[in-house]
Automatic annotation (TrEMBL):
Name of the protein in its database record: Ketose-bisphosphate aldolase
Top-rank taxon, per record: Bacteria
Cofactor(s) it depends on: Zn(2+)
Coiled-coil segments on the chain, per record: none
NCBIfam families tied to this protein: cbbA
Amino acid sequence: MMQRPDNLYTLKEALSVAERGKYAIGSFSPRYTPMIRPVLAASQQNNSPAIVQISQKELERYHIEPAEFGEVFFRELRDLQITVPITLHLDHTKDIRVIEAAIAAGFTSVMIDASEHDLAENIRITREVARFAHEQGVSVEAELGKIGTTDFVETDTDEEMYTDPNEAEQFVRETKVDALAVSVGTAHGVYQVRQPKVDYERLQAIRARTDVHLVLHGGSGVPAEMVKAAIQLPGGGVSKVNIATDLEVALLAALGRADRMTNAECKNLAEDQLVAGRNAVAEVVAEKMNVFLGSAGKAGTFGAAK
């Protein structure tokens, strides 16, 4: 296993610091390997911790292997001389082989999503992945309930089922996961008809029953005040917020495109287009860190977090 750079953290390490500091860390999905650079650059420029992530469905849709994503990530981390705390995370994944490939590629966190199964089977699958990943020194996120979607990039269905606080207590106790993605009203993708909402009472009930780090998926398009309220709940709220769609929307707008590309197409963009796209992505990342997450300027809160 490769030696981790000093500023590369597991999800558990990073979220422990964020939760104590009452802010959240953005989990940004660049979706294209050339867009890893602006996420890292914006993190450094804003002195903010960050999580760089990609899901199994994104890997498939954009034609990327975990090894390639990891290789570009580590190269950019070195070439840009990034010193702020960073986590490399595999988002929604159902296939253990993809999880194994990501861990081999140096990912410090993985998400097993067995939420389509009943509680007992979700617990069984998640517990096995957690045991395997923890042996490799890698953190594990899981999902309980079902988080809806509008674009099917990260998940297969738009079915939604809110997380049951009592089930969350049992799930975390039996699986020993490090972070839990909860379904409390947000959805993946662009909000077109329905409007985002956050069930704060449900979040507080989950927090009252478990001290696991809570994750808000579907952070793109959610009003800043909603996100901030979810982060700053008494007793500890959300400490990780996933942001993917907003980055791709900004990238495509900067390129004057309506349709998404493959990763190969993105790599073959003209230099001026790459620069324009990267600037647009970096701008969104900086805005999230400053306006939504409260993570800007917080890199120094890590100290000796490991």
